[in-house]
């Protein structure tokens, strides 16, 4: 929750509840995309 609020200013821009829902869904999708890009690719090491 902290990362979402820190990245997207912690507020919604729309007054209509349905529009707020869509806005937050888009913010979550964007945040998840940023997290996936930043994750390193793991590979199994032969022991």
Question: How would you describe the overall organization of this protein?
Answer:
With 47 residues, the chain is mainly alpha-helical. The protein has a domain at 1-26. It is 60% helix and 0% strand. It is built from two helices and no strands. The longest helix has 22 residues, at 17-38. The radius of gyration is 16 Å and the shape is elongated.
Overall body shape = elongated
Quick check: average pLDDT?
Answer: 90
Cα-atom radius of gyration? 16 Å
User: How is the main sheet built?
Assistant: none
Strand count: 0
Number of continuous helical runs:
2
Task: List the uncertain runs.
Answer: none
Helix content: 55-70%
Per DSSP, what share of the residues sits in E-state strands of 2 or more residues?
A: under 5%
Structural class: mainly alpha
Report the order of strands and helices.
Answer: HH
**Amino- and carboxy-terminal Cα gap:** 39 Å
Quick summary of this structure?
This protein is mainly α and 47 residues long.
Based on the model shown, name its key terms.
47 residues; mainly alpha; 60% helix
Structural topology:
Layout: H1 2-7, H2 17-38
